[in-house]
Amino acid sequence: MEREYHKWFSPNLRRNMELLVFGHSGAKVLLFPTRTARFYDYENWKIIESLRYQIQQGWIQVYCLDSIDQESFYCFWAHPQGRIFRHIEYEEYILNEVIPLANKKNQNPFFMSVGCSMGAFHAVNIAFRHPHLFGKVIALSGRYDLTLNLGLFYDLLDGYYSDQIYFNSPSHYVQNIPEGEQLDHIRNQQITIVCGKEDVFIQNNREFSQCLTNKGIHHLFYEWDGMAHKAKYWKQMLPLYI
Fold it and tell me: Distances in Å between the alpha carbon of 239 and those of 33, 41, 63, 235?
């Protein structure tokens, strides 16, 4: 299994960013990290190993992305407006730096947006905001409204609200997307959402699934027994759904 390490200074984020690439060909998988996690965690947790067969067969090429959550949504000393602006800069880094790198390395046009936990939010949000770029979305154990207080997981914007927060909250904006090109592209995506029945995010997942259904967006929604919100479960889930 081919493995590459990349590091460069990001003009969008004004700091060095790192990532790992696994595989030599196939559909390109942008794998977003869990909450405040690093680009090497999926490898360390043996989640990449669980995808070894698909990678070695040349079916997928996985880009393990780094996180800046501690500079955006989890930067609690910063004003919430600054947090969301930093997140938007992260999106620009993905769109204008990571995707061009992937396209240069691999001519396969098909992109998947994939993530676990906080990474599921990132995967869904960027894929729905820019659906012409992504053919498939896989979101495991995520939440799609960061303004909610759910158990030990608090509103990450401290009650603050703005247009930027609205347009980066899938539970909010998806229900209001008008008929047109964006919605058509989303409807053409292969979308899989998975959450544990005892996960604190399960109600948000159920409501989000219903929101997609109401908009005529076909998707698969699976509920696993228990909390199912750990790497040992994601190692089982990803080979099934990718």
Answer: 17, 17, 16, 7
CATH of region 3-241, choose from 3.40.50.1580, 3.40.50.720, 3.100.10.20, 3.40.50.1820: 3.40.50.1820
Surface-to-core class of residue 14, CB atoms within 10 Å of its CB (0-12 exposed, 13-18 middle, 19+ buried): exposed
Strands (E), the chain: 3-10, 15-22, 27-32, 60-64, 111-116, 136-140, 190-196, 220-224
Given this model, what pLDDT does residue 214 score? 98
Task: Tell me the two tokens of residue 42.
Answer: 């999926």
d(CA 181, CA 75): 34
CA 75 to each of CA 80, 83, 85, 87, 132: distance values in angstroms, whole numbers, following the listed order? 9, 7, 12, 11, 31
**Burial of residue 234, with CB atoms counted within 10 A of its CB: 0-12 exposed, 13-18 middle, 19 or more buried:** buried
- For the beta carbon of residue 178, count every other beta carbon within 10 angstroms: 7
CA torsion angle 32 36 83 145 (round to 10): 60
Confidence at residue 8, expressed as pLDDT on a 0 to 100 scale? 98
Percent of the chain with pLDDT over 70: 100
Run of H or E including 170: helix 170-173
Report the predicted TM-score, pTM, of the whole model to 2 decimal places.
0.97
pLDDT tens for residues 42-80?
A: 999 999 999 999 999 999 999 999 999 999 999 999 999
Which residue reads 């800069």 in tokens? Answer: 89
